[in-house]
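Before a colleague's protein record goes any further, I have to sign it off. What it holds is a sequence and that sequence's fold in token form. My question to you is simply how this chain folds and whether the tokens agree. Thanks in advance; the entry in question is below:
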Amino acid sequence: MHFLYPAFLFALISMAIPVLVHLFNFRRYQKVYFSNVQFLKEIQEQQSSRRNLKERLILAARLLALFFLVLAFARPYIASQHNTNAGSQRIISVFLDNSYSMQTLNREGSLLDEAKRRAKEIVSVYSMNDRFQLLTQDFEGKHQRLLSRDEFNDAIDAVKISPQSRNLQQIINRQQNLLNIQPGASRSIYIVSDFQKNIANSQPLKIDTGVRISLVQLAANTPANVAVDSVWLLSAIHRPGETEKLVVKLHNYAGENSTKIPLKLLINGEQKALGGFTINARSVQNDTLTFSGLKAGWQRGEITLQDNPVTFDNQFYFSFNVKRQMPVLLIDGGMPNPYLKAVFGADQFFAANRVPEGNVDYAALNTYPLIVISDVKAVSAGLSQQLKTYVSKGGTLAVFPAADADMGSYKSFLQQMGAAYPAKLSTENIRVSALNMQNPVFKNIFEDFPKNPDLPVVKKYYQLSTSSGSNENLMQLQGNQPFWAEYNSGKGKVYVSAVPLNEDFSNLPRHALFVPVMFRIALLSGHDQPLFYTLGNDKTIETAPVQTSEKQLLKLIKGKQSVIPDIRQQEGSTLLYLSDQLQETGLYDLKKQDSIVSVMAFNDNRSESDMSYYTQAQLDKIVPNKSNVIQAGNGSLKDIVSQTNFGVQIWKLCIILALIFLAAEILLVKYYKDGKQVFLQTEESTSINT
């Protein structure tokens, strides 16, 4: 048997009081003279024996009542097989789920309110000497310390809904980190949550030995819910006044069909599209919204749908930049290429900047969506490395070898990006035999493609090597040899031509296909920032290079909220480290002093939108044997927690026994006769006889 409050056992010293009272409570007898003493003596002896028995029974009742009363305050229990540590102090870590799903209503109000009440019930079972840790989805630094019971209850009251969503293993690891620095103490972990299925996978949890884990599952409803999971624009480059098409991915997380869900698209606060959609149960549906009339600059997009009772995922934010002009960098061997100059000079949207290979500003490469290198005999090692970094970060590179190209230089240049390189010069007269009409470059170029098209004629060309990366031919020569090929490298693309832009090699520079293909490559290029980021997931954001100083800091601003991220500069980009600084969804301006560098959209993690929950049987499979799952019903958790962690509580039995012995004392005093009246009657009769 163990005691929750063993200090109260010192009160057993008070049992000496009834004993002392019994020993020193001497009776004073009055002398009475009788003529016949023999008869009186027999009666007196009989009365003393009965009186001693009564007093001893009363003393025993008092002692036992006091004994069991002290035991009741010491809270005795028979330890369970899971917890036999009878130490004087315990360390208890309680995780309180405050994710978006905890806004769901049940009979007790919101799940978060019920979770707070349950957490307080748990700590009320433990003693004043025990220490507690409160942990939430935010993983805040202030929750990495131990609290008293009153401090814990105050911290519970301050918990609010958070956009963060951690998995169960992360939560347990965080709790164990604190408990492991408390050697010798009894360690217990409680996780109070609705246990959505996104909180864990089917793999068993890894738990340290000596740690007792209890999962307290709240009873949650399963409401209907439809959310926007993602959006994307079909056009890679956005021009002022042009028509845009936005694809919206809608997800019905409920087990029943949702009909006529109203959806509204706002751009810069102005309504651009409105519609109603019907989505089957547990299905995903893509819908396209068309809008136009955009001006140059950053566009602030918001999609709103009306879907009750789950409302935290009814808004979806995104942002993109409509450019007045698209910069293109042309790198050559010293002489400008007339064909490229003519192509990008035909449309004012393109702002072509031509530089020789020796004067390239490496720091500015990342500002160009498209870089075209032509007529360069040998690519230097420095330029090669910088272009590799540029492509890996999402840039697009088009390569036209020089007529007298150094093949070894091109090999080391293109091979590192997984692209084919000029391996051999062939003087065979040949014709382009086919176009890859499935490639995005050729989509929407032709209204009606002819059966016998006039394709480029080739006089001589470089045979391209096989590549290690994924590739797709834009144009193909007879014999299935690549003429113009596309290669994926990192986040970007490399387009390699088998001929220079020289009419001695082919008629490609003057062919009707050259201009639209170059335009399509340019319009499909770019490494713009994503349309949106996810709170909690995107803690590091890569943006265009921005020079900062101590007086010119970058800030993320939304209304009155201002966040200064940690800035790191790397090759061709600036990294923003946000950690958990952002707690609200919406559109944020990235500002350098008063100028807007970009507009960034942040949305919640849509894993919280799926209101599917683990059953107790499923939870039993992912927690080890030394853990238990508690279903929080309408009653109190105190008895369940006490019995689970402390074993069989017998303090109530002690109170009952104390009351029984108090009642026994009262009955002995009131109804147990000691023969005193008999003595008086005898005295009276003896006096009369005398």
Observations:
- The CA atoms of residues 30 and 680 lie 12 Å apart.
- The chain has 13 helices and 36 strands.
- Confidence is low (pLDDT under 50) at residues 676-690.
- The longest helix spans residues 37-74.
